[in-house]
Design a protein that fits this description.
It contains 6 helices and no strands. By secondary structure, the chain is an all-alpha fold.
Length: 104
Amino acid sequence: MSERIDKIKEFLKLTPDDDFLKHALALEYIKIDNNKEARKLFEEILINNPDYVGSYYHLAKLLERNNEIKLATEWYEKGMAAAKKAGDNRAYNELHAAYEELIY
């Protein structure tokens, strides 16, 4: 696992603003239970690029697992709005289903 993280970090040194690489690194951190670093990366992606729809679900799920329900709900809502704006029905449906499961 560490090898993948190291490789992604090497790539990020070359292209530090690459949201795809940051997202991939955050997912690797989740796999090793480093939720703090994963959260920091997802938040950085979404603050700098709110159109990066793929990170909303993972950030909200992470918050949900950490019992930060209000914040998770807010990120699901922001994600649904971003997905709708982007015309990404698949992402919208995934976010909406997770959101409904959380609040009902």
